[in-house]
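User: My instructor asked us to take a sequence, write out its structure as tokens, and then describe one feature of it. I'm not sure where to start. Here is the sequence I was given:
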Amino acid sequence: MEYAIIAAGQGSRLVADGVETSKPLLQINGKAMLDRLIAIFLDNNAESISIIINAEMTDVRAHLNTLKLPVPLHILVKTTPDSLHSFYELASVIPQGKKLCLTTIDPIFSSLEFSAYIRSFESDDAHDALMAVTDYIDDEKPLYVKTNNELAITDFVDESYDGLRYVSGGVYCLNGKVISLLQAAIDSGVSRMRNFQRQMVYAGLRVQAYPFSKIIDVDHASDIPKAELFLNVVEGK
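Assistant: Let's start with the prediction itself. The structure tokens for your sequence are:
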């Protein structure tokens, strides 16, 4: 399994809250969010890890340069206008031909649930994408996920309505068919990962939801204690 992290955002909401640390290095229970993701990937059959950071993140680049990993670490430094363009640029350094788990830097989730999620996708030949979703909604602008009774995703919508249970968790397991859509999406002016997720469905790919009990996006200073408490509970600390 290949892994990739989109970490090229500015973290503007954290900065507005007075947090000066670059988001990838923000510590949750004493561990940088970036390091936590990498450790989880290594525990789940990582063959390589790719990451994109923006050009201003000199501290993150310095930190990455100190890491000694048992698998290749591909680092791309590039400032992009949005998350989809980050994924598009990152695709150039991700080894091709194998299944990919892509995540933003933000989500905090149970490592046990993540392992079950990865095992499910590794053995799944029926779907092109297995998308982490949660019914825990604590985001300013969540992306709601419309599913049928078998949890096949039929659409992504910006506004909630009766019958919608889940929101996107910012973690995506993808196969090569999904990555092949990137160029056409960029050429047609698609921006933001949420719009690309819609493109996947509209292109007829087989996109399935995988529920997590809770995924917390760390976007504000107030999210830090929430994430720490959650991990203390699910990891028995």
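For the description part of your assignment, you could build on this observation: The two ends are 29 Å apart (CA to CA). Try explaining in your own words what that tells you about the chain.
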